[in-house]
Amino acid sequence: MSTIWIALVAALGFAAGPWQRARIFHHAQPAGQSWRERCSHCEHTLVSKGRRGLTAILPPTGRCPHCHNRLGPRPFTVEIITATVFGLLAWHIGQPPC
Ligand SMILES: [Zn+2]
Q: Mind listing the pLDDT tens digit for each residue in 45-59?
């Protein structure tokens, strides 16, 4: 098992955190309500509808890039959790697949 392999995959997970944060912001709505696209404070569009929304990212600070009010999970929690899960998956897989 390579420590470098695990560290690289964990870093990839950390880098995917802002993308994951946008998914959480977009989908964390009560049942029956439409997915969230805009900041609740300034109405700035953060995640677009359709395919463009799939590429949206939100800053790891957890704040709206327009009005700087807090959105969703605390800063860096999503990124650290994603990095941990990716690192654990790499540890479980063992060796790089190629
Ligand atoms: Zn805002």
A: 888 877 777 788 888
Ligand 1 center from residue 18 Cα (angstroms): 16
pLDDT band at 67 (very low <50, low <70, confident <90, very high): very high
Task: Kindly give the distance from the C-alpha atom of residue 90 to the centroid of ligand 1, in angstroms, as a whole number.
Answer: 36
Nearest to residue 72, comparing CAs of 30, 26, 34?
Answer: 26
Q: Where are the domains of the chain?
A: 3-93
9's CB contacts (< 8 A; 6+ apart) are 86, 87, 89, 90
Q: How close is the Cα of 10 to the center of ligand 1, in Å?
A: 30
- What separation in Å is there between the alpha carbon of 79 and the centre of ligand 1? 21
**Can you give the pTM of this predicted structure?**
0.80
